[in-house]
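Async update (no meeting this week)

Hi team, since we skipped the sync, here's where things stand on the single-chain job. The sequence we agreed to prioritize is pasted below, unchanged from the tracker. I ran it this morning and attached the output directly underneath so nobody has to dig for it. Comments welcome in thread, and please keep replies under the output.
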Amino acid sequence: MKSGCSSMVTKLPFSVPEQPPCRTQEIFSHLTDSIDRRERKRPLGLLSNFVSDQLPHCIAEIKASERPDEAVKALGRSINAMIAETDYKAQLLNLPQPEFGVAKTDIQYLVNCAYQMSAFAGLHPVDAELTVGGALRQLARVSCQRQPSIDVLSYEDMILTNPLQSDPRVYCLGSAGVEERDFCLGHLLIESELQSAMDALLEMRDAVGADARQCLAVCVERLEAAVCVLARFNERMSPDLFGQFRVFYGKNPYKDRLGPSGRFSARIVAVSVLLIGEELFHQKPQFYMDIYRLSEYYPQGCIQEVFRWLSPDKGSAGLQPSWLEGKADFPKFATISPVMERHGSEIRKLRASCVCALDRFTRMHRGTALKYTVEPGRPVVGVEASESVEAVLSQRLLTAAHQR
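Output:
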């Protein structure tokens, strides 16, 4: 189907994921135990080379060491010595935005590795901070100053700026590394489909004279494509290989910070708001409360744009709005509901098909997360200790979404 919604009226103020080639059938194929690095993306030179080529080997050596505590401390000293030899701060500040995104990912992969391996080796928090080191910590601080974000490895770092298609950053070697790359690439494929669905809904909402039928047809097509990618996770991902790499993306063991998680996809939030925003508010207000409460974990460009849609007072975008406290009406103009009111039964049926596709995606995501994390007893990285895993995974489900 060709999209009739390709000409966007609103210029999106955030970067969109690179359109991946159609690789759904390739992920989790288990046909190789090596990554084909087709095009090297190394914005920080030797430091990026280290992250891409040597870090997985260093991790394997630490895990096999008789003295992992000394081995991880040595790795920290080596990384900080490498940083001290070059003015990486100047490089970082002068990189064009796409290269900067990859550089920030390299830095956060190093910081996260230092913390996770320190925990593996049983280091005291003081020793863990020494392992991270002053030079690496300063570089991480500079990257977050240039592009404000959470001060740990984020979903944006792991999925959206990681050069997954050509030169991926991974922590594991061999088959586990390939599975790790495929796990991230699958999320990128889903992000691309969600972006197309979001574009179609924005066209319908904002463009005068937009073809609502065509926009909704594109939306349901792209959501169904996202379901197909997610089905590949559910059917083909190896639980053993998943367990080997997932430990590196857990909650920060020394800070009160969550790990990178599909929970923090701003595009699934955007599609949900556009398509079923008011219904979610009435049925699952916790959905909105948690987005505002945990906003720093989301890719900032996209989530801040969603907040602008939801804020009647444009100057307060990002702050919890008055409607969420029951002091104002939900802002319908953030959704496609006002457009739906001008159309008949055919458009309503198409919108219902979109809602059902979104519901299938959410249900499959919940089932897959339970299958690979909760049932085997692995921690769910994007959920706080005080939260119910089932409640978090069900936040985007409408109670009547199965009804057509």
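Quick observations from my side:
Residues 174-206 form the longest helix (33 residues).
Residues 185-393 form a domain with the Methane Monooxygenase Hydroxylase; Chain G, domain 1 fold (CATH 1.20.58.480).
Reply here if anything looks off.
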